[in-house]
Amino acid sequence: MADSSGSHAPRSPFRAWQAFVWSMQGLRATWDVESSFRLEVYLFVPLVALALWATPDGVERAILIGSMMLVLIIEVLNSAVEAVVDRWGSEHNELAGRAKDMGSAAVFLSDMNVLICWGLILGPRYLA
Questions:
Q1: Per residue in 84-123, pLDDT tens?
Q2: Is 75 a catalytic residue?
Q3: Which residues are annotated as a binding site for substrate?
Q4: Helices 35-54 and 13-33, interaxial angle, to 10°?
Q5: Numbered residues of the known binding site
Q6: 13 located within any domain
Q7: For position 79, which CATH number holds?
Q8: Structural domain of residue 87, as residue ranges?
Q9: In total, how many domains does the chain have?
């Protein structure tokens, strides 16, 4: 919930805190209604530990963990698109269906990005 003043940048610690609170509400809402987001978080936690253990290099760790963070970010955005489309109406609409399919495709592509990053970094090291 942004204020109606038209300003987007926090100008005080209180406004920065309020922006943080809204972000946490968004994460909570996503957690509450999206089982796929919960599953991705459950996978994220042990895979972060694996990334930290399996790679000594900070850049490699950043790529492995960052690729997984991207999945979570895109899942939140996809959930937002779905919520707006569902709010608009339950009747079938070609554009609404296309928007949902595109959001799903974005999640799929981010999942493929994780597989490619992990495969290119860990594959040669552990499969050679």
A1: 988 877 778 888 889 999 999 999 999 999 999 999 999 9
A2: yes
A3: 28-31, 61, 75, 104
A4: 110
A5: 28-31, 34, 61, 75, 82, 100-101, 104
A6: no
A7: 1.10.287.3610
A8: 35-126
A9: 1
